[in-house]
Amino acid sequence: MVWQAALDGRATRFRLVGINNQNFIMQDEAIGSWWQQITGAAIQGPRKGARLERVFHDEVTFGVWRREHPGTRVLVPDADSAWMAFSRDWEVETGALPVATRVRLTDSLPPRTLVVGVQVGDDAVAYPFTALEKQSPLLDRIGGVPIMLVLGDDGRSVRGFRPEIDGGFVEFFAVPASAPLELRDAPTGSRWDFSGAALEGPMAGKALARIAADKDYWFNWKTYHPETRVYNRGRQ
């Protein structure tokens, strides 16, 4: 998650102060409130109940990012920094720790199932990553709003879009074995790339609106979206 590091319009610094069910808690240096990383909400201190403003971001592999932004710069912590030492074995160590979430009899996903979470208004849906591997682009509706999830040709990067052009719904399909990934829209056959831009055909020059698609573990997504629906179309 990416949040604006600002309170009341003024830049401030945040630091890690703890871990809650494998989701970190940060403290602002301005007044000392504690904030939950996944929600951007202040959970303790003078600013309790306030929320940080979210910054739209991509979670893609460096290969995809560099292909789209060949002149990019990379922020790399110093090798001897405290952050490097802290994060070196983070995935392995936390993967062995227990997690907690509310369980219902209808739950069908193990806690550490990788999902792609999408929220539109008050409605949230968790899409198992395995469903995307079988069905991409994946078209669905959340709260009556059409959405589309696309798995990159690297098999790891995911992006979300509104499959609409000039206010009308448009169906898309992926060109098999295309690398870089190539999409075509059903009405015109125009060629689109993984960024949601039309490159050739009648739609050339148009771009799809992006939506936030968060890769997360099921236990974490469900904890902060307790009424989430689980996408199960096409599951075996």
Structure at a glance:
Helix content is 14%, strand content 33%. The protein has 236 residues and is α+β, with helices and mostly antiparallel strands.
Give the topology.
Layout: E1 6-7, E2 10-11, E3 14-20, E4 23-28, E5 34-36, E6 42-44, H1 62-68, H2 82-87, H3 90-95, E7 114-120, E8 123-128, H4 129-134, E9 138-142, E10 145-151, E11 158-162, E12 164-165, E13 168-169, E14 172-174, E15 183-185, E16 191-192, E17 198-200, E18 209-211, E19 214-217, H5 218-224, E20 229-230
Parallel strand pairs: 8-20
Antiparallel strand pairs: 1-2, 3-4, 4-5, 5-6, 7-8, 7-19, 9-10, 10-11, 11-18, 12-13, 14-15, 15-16, 16-17
- Please trace the helix and strand order, writing H or E for each element: EEEEEEHHHEEHEEEEEEEEEEEHE
The structural class is alpha+beta
| Adjacency order of strands in the biggest sheet | 3-4-5-6
Number of strands: 20
Tell me what portion of residues adopts beta-strand conformation.
Answer: 25-35%
Please compute the radius of gyration using only Cα atoms.
20 Å
Q: Tell me the overall shape.
A: globular
Number of helices: 5
Our measurement of the CA-to-CA distance between the termini, rounded to an integer number of angstroms, reads 31 Å
Biggest sheet descriptor: 4 strands, antiparallel
Poorly predicted residue ranges: none
Mean pLDDT: 89
